[in-house]
Amino acid sequence: MMQSGIPLCNSCGESVGLGPNDEAFIACHECNYPMCENCVHYEIKEGRKVCLRCGIPYAAASSLVNPTADNVEKDDVSVNHTTMAHHIESYQDVGVHARSISNFSALESESNAESGNPIWKNRVESWKEKKNKKKVISKREQEPQIPVEQQMEEKQPMENVQILSKTIPIPSNKITPYRIVIIARLIILGLFFHYRVTNPVDSAFGLWLTSIICEIWFAVSWVLDQFPKWSPVNRVTYTDRLSARFEKEGEPCQLAPVDFFVSTVDPLKEPPLITANTVLSILAVDYPVEKVSCYVSDDGSAMLTFESLVETAEFARKWVPFCKKYAIEPRAPEFYFSQKIDYLKDKVQPSFVKERRAMKRDYEEYKVRVNALVAKAQKTPDEGWTMQDGTSWPGNNPRDHPGMIQVFLGHSGAHDIDGNELPRLVYVSREKRPGYTHHKKAGAMNALVRVSAVLTNAPYILNLDCDHYVNNSEAVREGMCFMMDPQVGKNVCYIQFPQRFDGIDRSDRYANRNVVFFDVNMRGLDGIQGPVYVGTGTMFNRQALYGYGPPSLPSLPKSSSSCSWCCCFSCCCRSKKPSKDASEMYRDSKREDLDAAIFNLREIENYDEHDRSLLISQMSFEKTFGLSTVFIESTMMEYGGVADSANPSTLIKEAIHVISCGYEEKTEWGKEIGWIYGSVTEDILTGFKMHCRGWRSIYCMPVRPAFKGSAPINLSDRLHQVLRWALGSVEIFLSRHCPLWYGWGGGRLKLLQRLAYINTILYPFTSLPLIAYCSLPAICLLTGKFIIPTLSNIASIWFLGLFTSIILTSVLELRWSGVSIEDLWRNEQFWVIGGVSAHLFAVFQGFLKMLAGVDTNFTVTAKAGDDADFGELYMFKWTTLLIPPTTLLVVNLVGVVAGFSNALNSGYEAWGPLFGKVFFAFWVILHLYPFLKGLMGRQNRTPTIVVLWSVLLASVFSLVWVKIDPFLSKATTITNNCISIDC
């Protein structure tokens, strides 16, 4: 809620001020869009003379441009003013309600507010009293407390206001050649396919047709991947300006509060010490302590996690002041103390060495206590775990237990050793009962959204995985440079930070760092509508998670009946009179998929209490958000916060209520609100829904990485991780949210952004043509045939041009992105490794789940503990994912041996055609080489089961082809008179 009765300007963030009659200044009398007089003057000066929300010309435009002119009469202003109640009544005449889900008329809503739920009635009445009290206080304190210098500063024109962030396009000398080569490659691809299609290989028509289909699919995949990188950008933030604007000396800090979310499931796979380091880095972040709250979701209801948090909260009382006193980086103790750098650099305090040694000793003792808890938890007692007071641990049965919440530190009274307040730390374990669908991580995150809204209700949320610690203590300030920028942040749904990792071998054998994705693809998307949500290291606008649309929604085109479900109705209710017939407006009212679940918050802030009471219908809110009046009230507070008079014990009881397993039934949670259900990759789906509503996201890449995590570096775990991601993409493809057909009618998702999302859900299907294409070299070598006919001079030009354009595209991409050639090659290699293994299994599992209802259990990837460097790299775990790539390796090696043997027996003429076939086979072997090294392990031994399966499949494969086309019998007849490459 606003901090005073005067609304804040949506451009500069300051108060809109008072008009001539000591009332809040009104820029647009049509929709009451809050803008101060200075901003309106600036908009008109720049040539924008219409309201940003409704598009109606400003009533006071002439008088602002020319103060001496008085062309606007008061009567005209009063005629133009239309309240929200009038909008509702006009739409009810044609059978349509406003954005509220409730279908009650205005009269029914009014009667419901009077005689409905008494709790709801009391809530609304108390809210009105609080608003009126704030108005009185603001009028009493507004003028005397504002210094003259500050008043002059507020009246400065917009161009003098220092920006908090800046977008820096890629220099034209780098991006222009890149775009030219992309277009040239597209043209060459067209000419190449014209040649390939018009020149079939009759002697190997089946192989030729297969190769053509595969190559066309690869070309389409390249287009989907390449064109979203058309206009990459860089961004720069100014954290010093952020502090100067919102942390003025002698005044209360105006920085927005942030709620941190940390999720964990299994403490045996996700070591408590790793989670504790993440929590400690959050508590020590460089941000006002009263603005930070950390929520830890324990979805496994493990007593080990709870007890480790107790120890962590106690150690934080020493660790947090130490970090802030000496500006420690990073502020996760495990990673700080393991740094192999000069820790005395830039530390001039004589006491630092002594205090650092003492802190390291304290941390070692803390580790001993946590590791003792882990050792104790290895064997669960038959009677279950018992807490220190002798009572049974409520979460002994992880599938049947009540909701649990414990508040540590902060407002609970626990301060650091210097007596200063600490950020709040909250343990949350949502209720689990048999018979309910809990939606895994997405359900846990939605529970955290509701708990945090009841207890702290920060306007921004930053979620981290349990193994991603804060590496840059100013990361929150970096994000706030976008979120709190009045020009940039109002339409931003989330800030995505790149993922960086520790503990990966120097060569990054399995492309764990994903450098190409994070440094190339994501920067390209930032130039369109914003990066995709990747699950961690993301700062959210809470209002976007509630399903609201952005403040400035683009106008929607007229939709056909085929896509009438895709649009929104919110823009229609801004016009004074309905301009469409009743049937068309009824169709518009049904377009809820891309819209906010309830009305836009800004459409309610500027109306009187009577009009607001017509909109705040108890039933409409409960159908959307659930049966919690405290939570519903929090959703209306755009700037967050909870009432000062709120009883902490009452809030805890309400927080327990909102995490009950039946709370989400018959609501919009997981459908339009919060993290979206329906896929194991809920992150991609959630971000996609936000972009479809018209929001944009921003990619923030600080010089010092904001967050760092641990990645599974051994082959088996890496493939299972990729399998989970690919399976999520297949699930989205088979759902109603598929980007191929979802959201076209809204017109809010840009075309290149849609191409990026289509590529995100289609890439697993590339495994099918990739398997076929990697099998072709072995088939050609075993059968003596080839997929390309004898090359003419013109055909040679197309092949040469295609290879040249591929190389140039990569080189120019490396030039503007700064990615190394080794990273690009590793990414290419693992694209083949993952494509022929994990992606293939994901496609089949996805269709099995859809057709047969066979669900795949979510597997938590084991996180590294205190093992030696790269100790996990050589661990080998048997999995069926290893069979397809091993088979391809064996088949191609057999094919190369058979090809050379055939050439030796056939004479000189056979060596020319052999070169193309062997080159093709070596292309496959080189791409699978990291897989081969991982298969061998440290001792260069491969498990017998893998060898047996692969040799068996390779033998069957080879015998089938020999039976169909016995190349041995044809060798003598072909080589006598054949000199072309297709022999």
From TrEMBL:
Keyword Kinase: no
GO cellular component: plasma membrane
Record membrane topology: Multi-pass membrane protein
Biochemical pathway: Glycan metabolism; plant cellulose biosynthesis
Cofactor note: Binds 2 Zn(2+) ions per subunit.
Keywords: Cell membrane, Cell wall biogenesis/degradation, Cellulose biosynthesis, Glycosyltransferase, Manganese, Membrane, Metal-binding, Transferase, Transmembrane, Transmembrane helix, Zinc, Zinc-finger
One Pfam short name: zf-UDP
Positions with a binding annotation for UDP-alpha-D-glucose: S263, K269, E270, D299, K440
Active site: residue positions: D299, D683
Residue ranges annotated for the Cellulose synthase RING-type zinc finger domain, each copy included: 7-64
Broad class of enzyme this protein falls into: transferase
Binding site for Mn(2+): K441, D465
GO biological process: cell wall organization; cellulose biosynthetic process
GO MF annotation list: cellulose synthase (UDP-forming) activity; zinc ion binding
Presence of keyword Transferase: yes
Cofactor(s) needed by this chain: Zn(2+); Mn(2+)
Catalytic activity: [(1->4)-beta-D-glucosyl](n) + UDP-alpha-D-glucose = [(1->4)-beta-D-glucosyl](n+1) + UDP + H(+)
EC number in record: 2.4.1.12
The name this protein goes by in its record: Cellulose synthase
Species annotation: Papaver somniferum (Opium poppy)
